[in-house]
Specification:
By secondary structure, this protein is mostly helical. The chain has one domain. It is 77% helix and 0% strand. The protein is elongated, with a radius of gyration of 17 Å.
Length: 87
C-alpha cells in the first residue's frame, strides 16, 4: 500500500531522538504509532461500510460492525496514549 511505503520512508529518515542509547520506551512509542495508523485505516473502512448498511434491514450485521468499530476505537485510543506517553 502506497501510504505505508510513505510512512515507512518518513520513519527511516526521521532522526532518533536520543541522547545516547535508544530506550525501550521510545521504540514502544514508535511501534504503537505504526499500529495506530493501521487501525485508523481499518476504522475508516469500517465507518464507510457502516454508512452503507441499513440497520433496519440488517440489524445483526449492523450491530456486529458497530461493536467492531467500538473495539477498534478503544484499541486506537490505547495505542495513541502509548505513542505520546513519552512526550
Amino acid at each position: 500500500d502506497e501510504r505505508m511505503k510513505t510512512l515507512f520512508t518518513e520513519l527511516t529518515v526521521e532522526p532518533i531522538r536520543s541522547d545516547g542509547e535508544v530506550s525501550a520506551r521510545y521504540i514502544e512509542s514508535i511501534v504503537a504509532r505504526l499500529r495506530e495508523v493501521g487501525i485508523s485505516r481499518a476504522i475508516a473502512d469500517l465507518k464507510s461500510n457502516l454508512q452503507r448498511l441499513n440497520p433496519v434491514e440488517n440489524p445483526d450485521e449492523y450491530n456486529s460492525a458497530f461493536a467492531a468499530l467500538v473495539a477498534l476505537e478503544t484499541t486506537r485510543r490505547g495505542l495513541h496514549e502509548l505513542s505520546i506517553g513519552s512526550l
